[in-house]
Amino acid sequence: MNQSAEQAGAAMEEMNQQAKARAAAAQKQQHERIEQQRRTRRATTEGGWLAKNCADWTRAWEEMKAPTAEREMNKHCGRLERYLQTGIAPPGTSRGKVR
Description:
Layout: H1 2-42, H2 45-64, H3 67-86
Helix pairs in contact: 2-3
C-alpha cells in the first residue's frame, strides 16, 4: 500500500512538472507574439513617426537637461509605448502622405 502511495505521488509530481513546462512554453509563445506585434507596429508609418519623435526629444533631453525637453520626451515616448501596446495611434499622428 505504501508503494502505491509513492507511485501516485511520483505520478502527480510528473504531471505537475509537465503542466509547468506547458505553462512556460505558452508564456514564451505569448511573449514572442507580443514582441512580433510590437516590431510590426514600429515598422508602420505611425510607429516610425512616433519613434522618431521619441528619439528626437530623448536626444534633446540628453543634450539640454531642460524641464521642457524632459516633459516632451516623456509625452512622446509615452505615446510611442501606448501605440506599441495597443496599436491605436494618438490623434495628430502622421499617417503618411495623403493623395
